[in-house]
Amino acid sequence: MSELPGIDLQHWQAQGRTMTFAGQPIRYWLAGAADAEPLLLIHGFPTASWDWHRLWAPLAGRYRLIACDMLGFGYSAKPRGHAYSLLEQADLQQALLAQVGERRPVHVLAHDYGDSVAQELIARHQEGRLQLASCVFLNGGLFPETHHPVRVQKLLLGPLGPLIGRLFSRRKLAQSFARILGPHTQASEAELDALWQLIEHNNGPAVMHRLIRYMPERRQQRERWVAAMQATQVPMRVIDGAVDPISGAHMVARYRELITAADTVLLEGIGHYPQLEAPDQVLAHYLQFRDLPEAVACSAEHC
After folding, report:
1. Does the predicted TM-score (pTM) go above 0.85?
2. Long-range contact pairs involving 97-103 (C-beta distance under 8 Å, separation at least 24)
3. What is the Cα–Cα distance from 194 to 200, expressed in whole angstroms?
4. pLDDT tens, 216-254?
């Protein structure tokens, strides 16, 4: 997909560390100099923090990177019968920052499901519960009214959700990715194998119908989250794959309607996973954002 080589999954797994959150083991990763500015990376559904592997080394050369597989994802615990919540995942991000001793205002780079977690963090910033320095969103359902879920997501929400989850397979994953990625930036077989390993680990398909409850939760939190984004002084940017049928150019159009002086970048021909499809473009636009005077000032003044 990209000229940036990335990290193979086995090597990525070996670099991980383990913490405990809510009595469950959580896998997390650190990279970069301890005194560099902290950058929290938050992954999407149904994958894991390996999504960032192509950006990991380039970003680690500039920032202190912090990332975890959220509860129910990747190499972290996937407890059956758990009531998964975006608010709890935000608690997890704060626990992760505490675990690694990070007390400075933190920059955030988020994708998909992670965008919703980041929105909750912005709301908490506005409430004085933590300090953010900036936030960049990749393709995600920032506004429920513009979110167009794929068929399997709709089925997971329905009465057959538990069965649909258990029947989810690598073949189904490949079919879904073929629809949501750009026409010229499709995943390789090796990438699909790795993504499926992360989903399948710890019997992940058995909890997908519980994780998918994030979609109605987004609707419940919409007014609070959008109000926080409209009020905050935290610098924000959207970097979005334009042809994503889930949250592509149509979502960015809504963002521009709702957010004053909206800072948005559309990647033409790119789909739902820009960090995998066009990481070189994402990296360039992210670094350019971080070099903007307002982003630097916000970091220095704690917003």
Report:
1. yes
2. 97/38, 97/40, 97/66, 97/130, 99/19, 99/28, 100/28, 100/30, 100/66, 102/38, 102/64, 102/66
3. 10
4. 999 999 999 999 999 999 999 999 999 999 999 999 999
